[in-house]
Amino acid sequence: MNHLKIALLQIAPAGNLEGNLDKGIKYCRKAKEMGADIALFPEMYSNGYDIYNRPATEWIKDAITLESNFVQSFGKLAKELEMAIGITLLKECPTGPENTFVLFNRHGKRVLVYSKVHTCDFSVEKHLTPGDDFFVTELDTAIGVVKIGAMICYDREFPESARILMLKGAEIVLVPNACPMEINRISQLRGRAYENMMGIATCNYPDSVPDCNGHSNAFDGVAYLPELSGSRDTCIVEADEKEGLYIADFDMEMLRHYRLTEVHGNAYRKPEKYKMITEQDKKAPFIRND
Hints:
Elements: E1 3-10, H1 17-33, E2 38-40, H2 56-59, H3 69-81, E3 84-91, E4 98-104, E5 110-115, E6 136-141, E7 144-150, H4 159-167, E8 172-176, H5 183-196, E9 199-203, E10 217-219, E11 235-238, E12 244-251, H6 252-261, H7 275-278
Parallel strand pairs: 1-2, 2-3, 7-8, 8-9
Antiparallel strand pairs: 1-12, 3-4, 4-5, 6-7, 9-10, 10-11
């Protein structure tokens, strides 16, 4: 069957880099046993998103490079398991640390590196360096090539994030997360999948992690099927609040057919009418410039 299985690793950090590595490897092996094509971690897993209630001068020291043993170990594991792995980290960068997602394909090759564009500059993430673009890669999987994009947590709040990924051809978007997944945030993800006719898989920390509550989720974006008289629920999985591994099973044949026949996404856009979106007026209401 033409199904893509994504394992959402809703796991708590182990307290240090080495512990996180060992625990991450254990859960990736479990994901492979469950038939996953991709294993997805929550946001900034290398240090468990432990950047609150600590001075920035302290947690910035947690930053690691893409060549670190932590990151490279997941590349080697991806090759060993023949399963793609999306690992997250606080990445060392000359201009300041970045909140980064790295995707290794099933051959252990690094095929996507994305740093969070919409850093939470109203809070401690103001000490991070934001990314400057959104990326899509062609991921070789057991069912063939799947076009994968990524965004991280607060990126979800901006429709432009998912829209750019859609325009770049993303079929599935992977979303590492570290915040409470409540009705409004989950609804945003549902909306991003629906309006762009693409799958979205989000992995959050369990409720044992401060300011997180589990509820990792996935939406396939397919709102209508010919055999149904009305719309369908696009949610294919939503976890509870506890630590665990949850499988999001995407029917790629159904999704691709839907993208070819339905009216959302890029079908009837009028980009010439959207100039105001890219022309930010610093006097406009609700825009913070502090």
